[in-house]
Amino acid sequence: MSASQIPPATAVPGDDLPTLLVKIFGKDRPGITAGLFDTLAAYAVDVVDIEQVVTRGRIVLCALVTAPAPAAGSSGSFEGDLRATVHSWAESLNLQAEIISGRGDNRPRGTGRSHVTVLGHPLTAESTAAIAAAITSTGGNIDRIFRLAKYPVTAVEFAVSGAATDALRSVLAPEAAMLGVDIAVVAAGLQRRAQRLVVMDVDSTLIQDEVIELFAAHAGCEAEVAEVTAAAMRGELDFEQSLHARVALLGGLDASVVESVRKEVRLTPGARTLVRTLKRLGYQVGVVSGGFTQVTDALQEELGLDFASANTLEIVDGKLTGRVTGDIVDRAGKARLLRSFAQQAGVPLAQTVAIGDGANDLDMLNTAGLGVAFNAKPVVREAAHTAVNVPFLDTVLYLLGITREEVEAADTHLG
Question: Is 203 in the active site?
Fold first, then answer.
């Protein structure tokens, strides 16, 4: 049949015809799906829908098929024969079968489609019940649930229809905070599978450290710098002023300290996996930092990042002067750079993901299509689209619908 001969969607077989829902339960083994449909084939039924899930070696297979029509002039019941044959086949394999009569396909799903991703460490029955109830309270219906990962966190995704994405997010965000789980709500659609740009903060996000504090340790003023850094990240101090004040304390350090600091930098657990997987998927990845190019340039080379921008420590005659050169990468600067990277990458802002932990990341997080607060300060968690509060950066992959099995399979096949 050519494309022009395909009946319109309103005429799909099973839309308003008698149908049978055939459900098979039992211990999984190869050949069950083929065996069921081979059995059904004898009755010339059409397949309207199929769902199958295997959990801990137990299969649930559902097939929605058109009811068999009796042969011309026959007084027998083909449906009765089909029921008896399916039950007999199931019993021969120590499976259970249930067959339910009805009409048509599934009821139409409500308008508004969203993916609700839940990360738990652990994910408890209590929190799952509360999340499901919260979804229901918005008028949403859970159409499907499946697991994305079982470690280092349990990650599951709910496909929800019938509720606006923003409404779901506003209800589930406070619920997540109360339950101690992480929840991300994103709109369903083709854009979720489109090429994306992912831009990260560096200090306490891509890496575990605050780079300026590593420099300060060499200058003997670590405690003083750390105090100013913490206040700036909480939003209590203007970032640019705090940057100048902290950098001034580094004046006179020998430039050789740069190499020492580079060696001291520790990537966040999961950082390599996150970047490697995103790059394999064809995503572009960048970093913006209130730290220093003396470190971010090395990270860009090591991880194969597409974009990187940060402040630059001024070095004169082999010594740090205590000043920075060029435009300051501050809160507004990070958002500006996100827009610039997106333009260079040819990716609309709606398809960008920003990840950060501090107050100076807020504009960037709110500019991106999806802003992720990673182990962030309270003011950032409350303002971002979603929050991740486990110490594994690669859990962000689950928010994009990427499963742990897909990550591991890519690592196995591509090395």
Answer: yes
